[in-house]
Amino acid sequence: MKIRNYIALSVLAAAALSGCTNDENNSFGIDNKTFTVEAVGGTERIRVSSNDSWVASASVPWITVSPANGKGSKECRLIIDSALTNQVRSGVVRITKSDNSAEYQEVKIEQKGFDYAITLDEPEISIENYASLDERHFDVRVKTNVDFEVKIPDEVANWVKTDRFDVNLDRGLRPREVTVRFTWGINSVPMERTAEITFVPTSDSGVTSDMLAQNDNLTIRQNAAEEIKRGTREGDSVALLSIARSLAVWATNWESSGEKMDNWSGVTLWEEGMDGYVDSLKGRVKYARFFMFSTKEGLPFEVQYLTGAEELQFYSNVNTFQLNLDTGEYICKLEHLKRLTIGAYGLTSLHEDFTNLKELEYLDLGSNNFEKIPEIINPDNFPKLHVLKMANNQRRLIYDLSNDISTNFGGFYQETAYDPNTKEFGDFPSRLLRWEPGTNKKGEAVTGLDTLILSVNYLQGEIPSFEDDSSVGYYTEADIANSADTLPRRLLTVKRVMPQLKMFALNFNRLTGKLPDWILWHPALDWWDPYTLFFSQEGKDEAGNLAGFSNVPSNMNYYYQEYTKKYLANMEDDSASSDSSDSSDSSTR
Questions:
Q1: Which residues contact 379 (CB under 8 A, 6 or more apart)?
Q2: Contact at 8 Å (CB) between 447 and 361?
């Protein structure tokens, strides 16, 4: 009886053990069988339940399973790449048991496609009204899957610009991040301004704006400028400080000195008794000098507020020879300015409104980079101008122009450039040699140039003699009669060219040929210091000729034989100088 019971229990235990093993062997499955994934891709997770080994595989290359095989229960990561198109795509991950039972589980994955879009990380930007040129920019990060262009409205194009950029769509419609650099200009008015910038698909992209699921615009808000009270002493002081800041002037301590504007170095204020003084100018800036600075743009906008200034000087910019600058519009607003120096600044052009400065009497544009003398410098635009200085406009020294392939080296080269086909030089800028007292085309009285400085440039060829120019006459009996016997009759055979010139300098150009009679017999030749500032040339011209005139007189005796009163005056001056020297020596002894 006991034996039967043992057998029965054994059978039941075996049956129970057999039933438990079958249940565990049949527990093969996953906890999630479908996923919907955004176009950007990402990672999803599933739990594999199994007592045996298994292997996972994906039906498409844009899905990766990790781990791709295992034994027992494990968590697997499904790594989905970002989409490449705007279409929905599907894939399957199959997990198969490794016991040859062919049993498997599947996970179905559906991924959305990318919509066309142009989006911005920061759709609103705020900027200051002023910064130095190197700091006047900001970058905008654009996410896009469309080739696009930046549309800047015409009304803000004068102060908002973009640099070049490229949109690389080598990964299909997967959005790429593009950095677009914007540059901006100074806001010179005490009022905030705004620019609305749009980003639109290019015409050859095959996409139109209405196909974009998202299309961000950029709003730029620029702060208002500090208000400068025009026509006041206070406004002038703020303008001076602002100009010095904009130019990064090294040599001024106006702001830190604590001194009143009356004591600022390089500044002269209007006072009673000064020529041209009126009560409204009292205490305002009459003259200001800005020296040794660093800028890569035209004169600062604050210049326009110095409306009482009679003279301004801007001189000695950093790396002048590398720059190609324009004066800018702001200096052109000072219509009462009489004397202006913009030297060693890096200028190659004058703003078109420079002609507003009709009261100019003195203009020094020396040590810049002009290839040509600006056409607007003429007696029609500047009837009161009598001093014009444009010396040393060479970017660098080229001794032999015939043995150099450089370009854009300044020095008025374009005025007289050599033509190898005709073997002739361009015409000397004789328009300046016709700037005499009289009346211009507008019927205005013209003062005429009494000082013309064109030294240290690259003018070539010959100085015009005007012998074949019927529009230029000879000195007349009336000229001699009205000169109080200072003009010799020798001048009756000499062309009457710029007789009012008190100073004319042309030294260290590449001029050749004969000195014309109008130079050799000019009434003021002896005042010009001609052997130093006129006759001396240097280097070779483009034709290979050694620069220099062929008929330079050995001394001035020929001249004084005709200008006898000048000779006697010089003798008297020399005698007086000698007497003074002897007296001094005698008293010392």
A1: 385, 435, 440, 446, 448
A2: yes
Sign of CA dihedral 397, 399, 405, 407: positive
Angle at 418 between CA 415 and CA 419, to 5 degrees: 120
- State the Cα–Cα distance between residues 463 and 514, nearest whole angstrom: 8
Query: Which amino acid, one-letter code, is at 68?
Result: A
Model confidence at 102: pLDDT above 50: yes
**pLDDT tens readout for residues 275-311:** 999 999 999 999 999 999 999 999 999 999 999 999 9
Instruction: Note the Cα 325 to chain centre separation in Å.
Output: 7
Q: Are 365 and 389 in contact (CB under 8 A)?
A: yes
CA distance 363 to 350: 12
The one-letter code for the residue type at 208 is T
Instruction: Tell me the torsion sign for CA atoms 554, 556, 562, 567.
Output: negative
The pair phi, psi for residue 549, each rounded to 5°, is: -90, 145
pLDDT over 60 (residue 23): no
Element (H, E) at 311: strand 311-317
Cα(580)–Cα(21) distance, integer angstroms: 135
527 and 504 Cβ atoms separated by less than 8 Å:
no
Mean pLDDT over all residues of the chain?
89
339 token code pair: 């004397």
pLDDT score for 169: 81
Reduced DSSP (H G I as helix, E B as strand, rest coil) percent helix, strand, coil of the chain, to 5: 25, 25, 50
- Tell me, rounded to whole angstroms, the distance of Cα 280 from its chain centroid: 37
Could you tell me the pTM of the whole model? 0.71
Taking residues 219-235, report their average pLDDT.
Answer: 90
Tell me, what's the pLDDT at 256? 66
Which residue matches tokens 């009204």?
129
Peptide bond into 437 cis (omega under 30): no
Task: Point out which residues pair with 311 in neighbouring strands.
Answer: 287, 339
pLDDT at residue 528 in the model: 96
